[in-house]
Each structure stands twice: as C-alpha cells, then as structure tokens.
Design a protein that fits this description.
The chain is 15% helix and 38% strand. With 239 residues, it is of the alpha+beta class. It has a single domain (3-225), classed as Cysteine proteinases (Cathepsin B, Chain A, Alpha-Beta Complex). The longest helix is centred in the last third of the chain and has 15 residues, at 197-211. It is globular and about 65 Å long. The structure holds zinc ion. Zinc ion is lined by residues 17, 19-20, 22, 65, 67-68, 72. Residues 17, 19-20, 22, 65, 67-68, 72 line the site of zinc ion. This is Ubiquitin carboxyl-terminal hydrolase 21-like.
C-alpha cells in the first residue's frame, strides 16, 4: 500500500479580485498539512489561521487580474479540497534562526476527534467523510540537533501504546493528549484501513526522508538520521 494514497490531500488556493470578483483557483496535492503554531495554543485555531481569508493589498505587490486586466487588491484563501483517508498534520516546531535551528516547545492542544467541515467548501463536503479520530501522536524529545522521536499509537478504548523498538508501554489518554506534538495522525472514523499504524507511520517518515521534502517535513537532517524506526524512546516510564 502506498503511503501517499492514504495521506494525499488537495489544497485549493483561491484568489478573488476585489474589483470585479473574478475568481481563480489552483489545486495542489499535499502529503500533510503544515501549520504555523506561533500565537496558537490549539489545533483548531491553527487550522483556522491556515484557511483564513488574507487580503493582499500591498501597493508594491498587487496582483494582475485576468478579469479586469488591472493590478488589483485581492483576497486569497487556502482550503482543503479533498479529505484524505489519513490526515497528517505537522505543527511547525522547527525554524532556522540564521545558522541555528530553533525548536518551539510550546504546548498546542489537539482534540481526540476532529471534523474538517469548517475547513472545506460547503459544496465540496458532499460525499466526503469529514469526521476523524486521533490515532497517533509523534513528538520530538531533546534538542533540535540530537533529539529523537516518540510515537504514541491508539489501540482501542482508552488505551494508547508507546512503541519502543521491541517493547511497548501503555499510557492513558490524558497523558497522550498532554504531549507537545510534532505530528498528528487522524484517521477517518469510517476508515477500513488494515495496515498497522506502526508500519504506516514508519513508512510515512521513511518516505519523507527519501524525498527529502523540506517543506513537508522540515526536520533537520541530523534529526532524521536519529529516527531509525519513526518511534523510539527509552526514557519514558509506563503508567
Ligand atoms: Zn478583477
């Protein structure tokens, strides 16, 4: 099974002319949603910011409109066009400050269940399952240059497991929801996906390492080389 077939979504970038109302749309496949977390303490606020209407009115950088053939002020909005089987959300925790990589360690609250309807156009919501359940949380422990990843995977009921090579540690939901998450994996509530999530997440991270797509997974090379299994930790205690 190809990872991209499960996680691929389509972003709809829409530009509307404020003078004549001409609309242009660009559709772009995306493997995961990469969200800014500055100023946001929860996932919904980050998603709202991701899909907010932005007015581009910088007089030095006005956009040419195909409708009225002049340079105009426009409104731009990014929305999700196709809801993927597995919604992968990356919280942008790593930035480059000159030559130094900086990790943002603030907590961003995330829900166990997520409905994508507010972030998809109403007429595109038909025939799409938009309800998701949280199935895995990946966080990054340590400093940007030498840390490692931990992956919590949902089992059933209120059970979560932290996979650590050949060992498993069980955790309760409250503990998992309190993590400073880096990647969140939401699966459609109607999903019939049979692949184990440990395999899936390992494949996902490996795929990103191979494609070296810095936009989708802005993890420094040194971090990625420490992430052999996509889930490892020997410092956490079972609960
Ligand atoms: Zn126009």
């Amino acid at each position: 099974m190809r990872v991209s077939s499960l996680t691929s979504s389509v972003a709809d970038s829409r530009i509307i002319c404020c003078e004549c109302g001409h609309k242009s749309e660009t559709f772009e496949p995306v493997l995961n949603l990469s969200l800014e977390i500055d100023g946001h303490d929860n996932l919904i606020a980050a998603l709202q910011s991701f899909t907010r209407v932005e007015k581009i009115d910088d007089q030095e950088n006005l956009i040419s409109c195909d409708g009225c053939k002049t340079k105009v002020v426009v409104e731009k909005q990014l929305t999700i066009d196709k809801a993927p089987e597995v919604l992968v959300i990356q919280l942008k925790r790593f930035t480059c400050n000159g030559l130094e990589i900086v990790k943002k360690g603030q907590y961003v609250q995330y829900p166990e269940t997520l409905n994508l309807a507010p972030f998809i156009d109403e007429f595109r919501q038909q025939d799409q399952e938009l309800n998701y359940r949280l199935y895995a949380v990946v966080n990054h422990q340590g400093r940007p240059g030498n840390g490692h990843y931990m992956c919590f995977i949902h089992s059933h009921g209120q059970r979560w497991f932290l996979k650590n090579d050949h060992k498993e540690h069980r955790f309760n939901t409250d503990f998992v929801m309190d993590q400073t998450a880096y990647l969140l994996f939401y699966v459609k509530t109607t999903s019939s996906m049979s692949m184990s999530f440990h395999s899936f997440i390992t494949m996902f991270i490996e795929r990103n390492r191979q494609t070296n797509n810095s936009e989708e997974m802005s993890v420094p090379e040194q971090q990625q080389s420490n992430n052999n299994e996509g889930s490892s930790c020997s410092t956490m205690q079972d609960q």
